[in-house]
Design goal:
The complex is a heterodimer of chains A (184) and B (585). Chain A is α+β, with helices and mostly antiparallel strands and 184 residues long. Helix content of chain A is 16%, strand content 27%. Chain A is elongated. The chains are: A alpha+beta (184), B mainly alpha (585).
């Protein structure tokens, strides 16, 4: 072979070995070299893509605390209380046994439903989901009940609500810390 | 300075002579260096050199097929879409000079643009209205290309690029309307990004999401928002996407799109023997100019007369009632009423995009290329237009028939009218099946008319999976399995006979009112005609691979209709629900 640049110009009369062994003196065969090169390129691009994707996950986020003091428990009457809706996006519900809170985020796509006392329902303005006062879905597209944040009584008699601790499963959501027994 | 050859007019003051000034300017070295080609003699050679020698014009060929120039062929829709993109670029860059993408400042800057910046309101109006016009014109352009069969071989790839451009046009609108930071922005983006949270496997609320370890702070929604709620990071992300990333991508795709259009010589129609071409300069260029001028005037007038809406400042805790997306997404919003978010918000949009891109590879009918051909490609035209019509009917319902709490209000009904709360919904197949509610001790099928409890499932999951899966497969295969063409009249008589019987039976056996029962023949007929009769008549001889892929999209489209009917007529929430893995159909 006189022309090393174009191996295809090799005359066909000369039968090539099926997998050419590396010529003596060469550290690596042409085929293995190309394999290595292309694999390295694919690995590089793949890692680059993964790293770029990782770049879009922030490590630090600056968001408000999910825990707040809702005021004296004795200031709440029976029923659904809307006083914290605009600021903290929760309803606080007092029954004859105690308190629970509902996070006012529709489990369908995250809008804030409205409370209709006459119908006893929360109704969402975005796609028409309906919930009972317990937070269970009764109509519309929402897939699961409203979340209940943890609710506790401080030593000073205030309600502490933590929206970072949530529960929506019947059986668990009626127990502490998602239900506060209170008869003060 | 060149000398004037003309003598000054006798007996008057020396007035500037226009002809001579023009000659002096054109002959100057400066002018000649900018506009080459010597003296313009308006020869074919001059006209060709004009197109070739100008960087802006040379995207055009020198000569173009005459039929591609006809107004009634292309309607200039693609060109107008591009013009609107240019208007959007210019007005968008101007708006950027006065807009700061932070939660505290964004809305104030919008108000400043409206009331304090000279021409700020006009620029914003033009930007908003051009964006909406672009959505309209890109859709119309797609419909035109479809109806003239201009996506067929060898233009399949460019149709796919066009579908991507349509998607990106909508995405640009979506990222754009967060920027004013008003209530529309807040809630449209909250809903939109929560749909991403419903992506199967990748979203924390999607099917199999929790199984894959997805949480609120590590899923695909988190990357879109740059946090767990719409906030500062989200605004910056959408700003960068809207102003830089997506326009660049659109620009790249536009270059490919235009290049391919030119390489494929504009009109797709087979050549006539002895066909002559027309010169691009002046024939195509003047038409483009007229369309551009007309559009410019229309957008300007519209923007002077109509102000772009701006709602009150965003409040992440309070949603307006009702809360509606911009009109081109209201169809999607309406779909979300009937389907779980992972279907309506993720699967269906993706199926629409993939289905549109697959069309040129599925429709191998060689007829009707480069002309409006109704009779020669009835099946393709009917189903495509049905899809477009469904999209716009959904928009109509969402926009005009939905009132407070997203309840159904007819357009003539006042939103102040108090509507009864919607009835309970129930599921067909699901866990803990209460089949007694369907056929039980009570002489009437309670769930069909008025479910006594909410969210009850009446049939077991183990039955639901084969019934729904098998039903879908059967609906796909059936039109091809019936080899002989079904007589249309007979099929209609049989179908409506069976439906009438069913409605009467439901009425007398289980007290389903006729008004409710009529939903059955309505949606049933749409699915029967478009999903069975039409494919049976037109594509049963297609080979199996193409046939099955086509029918997959057709049956999916019919599935949308069937599910809508099930919800509207019978309050069925899910055909099948597997709450353990958040899989609801």
């Amino acid at each position: 072979m006189t022309d090393p640049i174009s191996p295809s110009s090799q005359p066909p009369s000369k039968p090539a070995a099926p997998s050419p062994a590396k010529p003596s003196g060469e550290p690596i065969s042409r085929r293995d070299f190309l394999w290595l090169g292309w694999s390295a390129l694919v690995a590089f691009l793949g890692t680059g893509a993964a790293a770029t994707a990782r770049f879009f996950f922030p490590n630090v986020i600056y968001e408000p605390s999910q825990k707040f003091n809702a005021g004296p428990a004795k200031s709440f009457g029976l029923g659904v209380d809307l006083r914290w809706l605009n600021e903290q996006r929760v309803w606080i519900i007092r029954t004859d046994k105690g308190f629970y809170a509902l996070w006012a985020r529709c489990t369908h796509l995250g809008c804030t439903p409205n409370w209709f006392g006459d119908q006893g329902r929360f109704r969402c303005p975005c796609h028409g989901s309906n919930y009972t006062v317990e937070g269970d879905v009764i109509a519309g597209p929402a897939p699961r009940p409203l979340w209940r944040p943890a609710i506790e009584l401080t030593s000073t008699g205030d309600l502490m609500i933590d929206k970072a601790v949530l529960q929506d499963l019947p059986g668990l959501r009626e127990k502490e810390p998602f239900f506060l027994t209170y008869n003060g | 300075m060149a000398e004037t050859t003309q003598a000054p007019p006798p007996g008057g003051p020396k007035l500037p002579d226009f002809a001579s000034i023009k000659k002096a300017v054109v002959d100057s070295q400066v002018w000649r260096s900018m506009f080459r080609g010597g003296v313009w003699k308006d020869t074919p050679r001059d006209r060709a050199a004009h197109v070739i020698g100008n960087v802006w014009l040379h995207l055009h060929p020198v000569r173009v097929r005459k039929r591609a120039l006809e107004w009634t062929y292309s309607w200039g829709l693609g060109g107008i879409s591009f013009l609107l993109f240019l208007i959007l670029t210019v007005t968008g860059v101007l708006l950027m000079f006065y807009y700061r993408p932070t939660v505290d400042l964004a809305y104030r800057d919008m108000k400043d643009l409206e009331f304090a910046v000279t021409l700020g309101k006009l620029m914003r109006n033009m930007h908003r209205w051009s964006a909406q016009a672009m959505v309209v014109f890109v859709i119309l352009h797609m419909v035109r290309v479809f109806l003239t069969g201009a996506y067929k071989k060898p233009r399949e790839f460019n149709w796919g690029v066009g579908v991507l451009l349509l998607t990106l046009t909508l995405f640009l609108s979506f990222t754009g309307y967060l920027l004013p930071w008003d209530q529309l922005a807040m809630w449209a983006v909250t809903v939109g990004t929560n749909m991403a949270g419903a992506t199967p496997f990748l979203g924390n609320e999607g099917p199999f999401g929790t199984m894959m370890g997805m949480r609120i702070n590590n899923d695909v929604r988190f990357t879109l928002l740059g946090g767990t709620m719409v906030g500062e990071n989200t605004l910056v992300r959408f700003y960068v996407l809207h102003c830089v990333a997506v326009p660049l991508l659109v620009g790249v795709l536009l270059i490919v799109h235009f290049w391919r259009v030119r390489k494929d010589s504009f009109s797709a129609a087979p050549r006539d023997p002895g066909e002559e071409k027309a010169e691009v300069w002046p024939h195509l260029i003047t038409r483009e100019y007229i369309a551009a001028a007309g559009c410019m005037v229309a957008i300007l007038l519209w923007s002077v007369l109509m102000n772009a809406p701006l709602e009150v400042m965003a409040n992440p805790n309070v949603t307006p009632n009702p809360s509606k997306a911009p009109w081109y997404f209201v169809g999607l919003q309406e779909l979300l009423v009937y389907f779980d978010p992972w279907i309506a918000g993720v699967m269906l949009p993706n199926l629409i995009i993939v289905g549109l891109m697959a069309i040129p590879y599925l429709d191998i009918n060689p007829k009707g290329v480069g002309q409006y051909a109704w009779g020669e490609r009835k099946f393709a035209n009917v189903l495509f237009l049905l899809g477009v019509a469904m999209w716009f009917i959904l928009i109509y319902i969402g926009y005009y028939c939905r009132g407070p709490n997203f309840a159904w209000y007819w357009p003539w009904e006042s939103w102040l009218t108090q509507k009864a709360a919607p009835p309970f919904t129930w599921n067909l197949f699901g866990p803990d099946p209460q089949w007694r509610m369907l056929v039980g001790h009570d002489p009437q099928w309670k769930v069909l008319v008025d479910p006594p409890v909410a969210n009850v499932s009446v049939l077991p999951i183990w039955l639901g999976l084969p019934v729904i899966g098998g039903g879908f497969a059967l609906a796909m295969a059936l039109p091809k399995l019936v080899q002989k063409e079904i007589k249309s009249g007979l099929a209609h008589v049989l179908f409506f006979g069976a439906m009438a019987l069913l409605v009467v039976l439901l009425h007398f056996a289980v007290k389903v009112p006729f008004s409710q029962g009529l939903w059955l023949p309505f949606f049933g007929y749409l699915a029967f005609y478009f999903g069975f009769l039409l494919p049976q008549r037109h594509i049963r001889s297609l080979e199996w691979t193409r046939y099955l892929i086509t029918m997959f999209f057709v049956v999916s489209m019919m599935g949308v209709l069937v599910k809508m009917g099930a919800r509207l007529g019978f309050n069925i929430k899910y055909l099948l629900t597997l709450p353990a893995v958040s899989l609801n159909i």
